[in-house]
Amino acid sequence: MQVYKYRSNYNLDLDLLSRNKIYAPNKYLLNDPFEGIVTKKIYDDYKLLEPILSPAEYKRKIESIDDLQIKIGYLGVYSMSKTFENELLWSYYANSHKGFCIEYESNKMILEKTKSIIFPKFIEIDYKNDPPIYSLEGMDNIDYEPFLTMLIGTKSFPWKHEDEIRLLFNENGEQEIDNTSIKSIIFGVRASKEDIINTMKIMSNNIQYYKMEISDEYKLIKKDIN
């Protein structure tokens, strides 16, 4: 599957790409302040159980959720979209169409040497009007993977236009990827000739280069510029 990353900072991102790297920030650096908000719901549910649990049982449950919060905070989140044609995303994340968009082949991004039982992993964002609700059943033995996936993989419905897919890592910061996963670089409608030429000098000749153009039908058209 092809996935796309809209970018605006040529110097920063070309440096990373030339080293076969991407930067996956933690959830506190993402632009949605509601990331992981469902955790409050879990705490509220446990509060209801406090009167019927022993102090030791209640403490153990709260500590389990605290541990989950810490794990979520350390995750690296690389957010992408399933489309390169969204004019709003070009405006928000690619400097008002002056930037570029990286096309990846998702099944080639993860290096064999970095694979583990849980991470790295892809998740598609689930858009909801309300935060997900967890059942308290079986919470003594938390299976972290589905909980982490749901917490970092659910966003409010107004974000649906982003059609987001995320690549999660067990820690934030720079991550190595397979350089063959980069299929193309697509420049925005307003990308300068200087930025285009400089990018093509820095990056591999094995990838395709395109530039978006406007049509008279409120549509963006991708044109080959190799």
Please tell me about this protein's structure.
This protein has 226 residues and is α+β, with helices and mostly antiparallel strands. It has one domain (2-224). The chain is built from seven helices and twelve strands. The chain has helices spanning 10-18, 38-49, 55-74, 87-93, 106-109, 144-152, 193-202; strands spanning 2-7, 21-24, 76-81, 100-105, 121-124, 126-128, 154-156, 164-169, 173-176, 182-187, 208-214, 220-224. A five-stranded mixed β-sheet has the order 1-4-10-11-12. The protein has a three-stranded antiparallel β-sheet with strand order 3-8-5, with no helix packed on it. It is elongated. The model has no long low-confidence stretch (mean pLDDT 88).
What is the ordering of alpha helices and beta strands? Answer: EHEHHEHEHEEHEEEEHEE
> How is the main sheet built?
5 strands, mixed
Spatial strand order of the main sheet: 1-4-10-11-12
Shape: elongated
The share of residues in extended strands comes to 25-35%
Ends distance: 23 Å
Mean pLDDT: 88
Radius of gyration: 20 Å
- Identify low-pLDDT runs: none
SS-based class: alpha+beta
Summed up, the helix count is 7
* Helix content range: 25-40%
Please outline the helices and strands.
Blueprint: E1 2-7, H1 10-18, E2 21-24, H2 38-49, H3 55-74, E3 76-81, H4 87-93, E4 100-105, H5 106-109, E5 121-124, E6 126-128, H6 144-152, E7 154-156, E8 164-169, E9 173-176, E10 182-187, H7 193-202, E11 208-214, E12 220-224
Parallel strand pairs: 6-7, 10-11
Antiparallel strand pairs: 1-4, 2-9, 3-8, 4-10, 5-8, 11-12
